[in-house]
Amino acid sequence: MPELAELADIGLDLRVQDSVATVTLNRPGRRNAMTPSLWLGLAEVGRALPEQVRIVVVRGAGPSFCAGIDLRLFTAEGVPGEDFRLDPADDGFDEILASWQAGFTWLRDPRFVSIAAVQGHALGAGFQLALACDLRVLADNAKLCMKEPALGLVPDLTGTKPLVEIVGLPRATELCLTARTVAAAEALELRLAEVVVPEAELEAAVGDLVAALLGTDPAAARATKALLAQARANTLEQQAAAERKAQRSLLAARQR
Length: 256
Ligand code: ACO
Prior knowledge:
This protein is α/β, with parallel strands linked by helices and 256 residues long. The chain has two domains: 4-214, 2-enoyl-CoA Hydratase, Chain A, domain 1, CATH 3.90.226.10; 218-255. The protein is 43% helix and 16% strand. It contains ten helices and nine strands. It has a six-stranded mixed β-sheet, sandwiched between helices. Strands 5-7-8 form a three-stranded mixed β-sheet. The longest helix is centred in the last third of the chain and has 20 residues, at 236-255. The radius of gyration is 19 Å and the shape is globular. It starts with a helix and ends with a helix. Acetyl coenzyme *A binds next to strand 5.
């Protein structure tokens, strides 16, 4: 596991209790604005999670889930200790960006179900982090915004695919190209939230969801998540074959 003190230095807190890991963005004074070090740290957390973890909760300390990238990175002063060179002429451009994206993609691992617990703002990279999770529980004060195009950027932290899959191409286009803010009630309508609860009940609502998810057989849960993840890309025949294969290996594992 990554050293907790090192994670604290990059604004992350990790707690693992039995089969539940809780990852907290922990720079509330900056509304949990994120840096490349934090994205690399998130990827490290994903690689190092113990095998017994079945649920990953991603939350933000303080009033906002996450205000997106730390805007100081775009200033001459930058953020102390952060190397934020992204030169399109650099041969390493692709590799660097891929290493940051890895801080998001691990949340889709079939080993566990990831849940974003979102209060207040989830902007830009923060919205993409919420989209990287399997499920989203929103407080009624949540505000989501894909702000990158308004800043002259594309959303590049793996958020475009889940956004299109959840809300559809026309709505994703409208949301990104207007960079407008979506409040919790609309987020629920657009299926960007599984549930919206009063802010004071966010933790309890996530706890209830975690308890319900943990009630399912662990091996069946993992195999089913892997199966569902392929469904959209597969033809019906391919998916039917995948179901047969998954069932066979699940039953065979149980016989051993
Ligand atoms: N980067 C760096 N610092 C930030 C960021 C950020 N993204 N967001 C907030 N902060 C800092 C503020 O500068 C302020 O610092 P200070 O106390 O030293 O003045 C502190 O966090 C609190 O911010 P407030 O604006 O006072 O908090 P409030 O709750 O009123 O508003 C909000 C929160 C709406 C998130 C606002 O701070 C904001 O609009 N932030 C910028 C959001 C943004 O544009 N992010 C980039 C998205 S694009 C991408 O992620 C690629």
